[in-house]
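re: ur question from yesterday

yeah so i grabbed the chain u mentioned. its 210 aa long if i counted rite. heres the sequnce exactly as i have it in my notes:
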Amino acid sequence: MVTEEKPSAADFLPNRRTLASLRAAARRCKGCDLYKKATQTVFGEGSKTAKIILVGEQPGDIEDRQGRPFVGPAGRLLDKALAEARIARGEVYVTNVVKHFKWIQRGKRRLHQKPTVRQVISCRPWLQEELEIVRPKLVVCLGATAAQGLLGRAVRVTAERGKFFESDAGWPVFVTIHPSSIYRHRDRNRQHEEYRQFVADIQLIKSRLS
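ran it thru and got these structure tokens back, copy pasting raw so excuse formatting
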């Protein structure tokens, strides 16, 4: 019995691989079904010689509309934490394991939905190529989906936050929360505590690379 191969981003990779050629090719990606509802592909951006790659789950509503990663509320919180740790946004590379926004309609709002394992696997070739080109000294996984995409296993951020690992491909990996999770706490004091811990994680990253 012949098993039909499922499509993935690998089917859309360009022959010549630079960040620019990958970004252009990703605009046409139909490696999974998420492209059908997304406004556009949201590829990574930043320094091609970055020592740090920050990897999130997927673009949000604002990112989907603007076509750039981490430009919404979570992105602004990330920028603030980086600034406190004295890391310039221009010195890092930011991206997501999934390049299209997965959402459901609730009234006038488009609400985020977690991508499936299949969708993460289908989209992973883009991230793998970004890593091969930038070749960072550290990959920072923002949240469980990003960590699972890099480490190839289920990750509980509450248990593995602040720890360093090595991916199957040999990339040094650090696990922390996604900044969007800070907003999910209704209590302002809890938000503040989570943000301070997030900044401490970023500072730990900086000290690791110093």
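noticed a couple things. The helical segments are 19-26, 61-66, 73-84, 117-134, 144-151, 157-160, 180-183, 188-209. also The mean pLDDT is 94.
anyway ttyl
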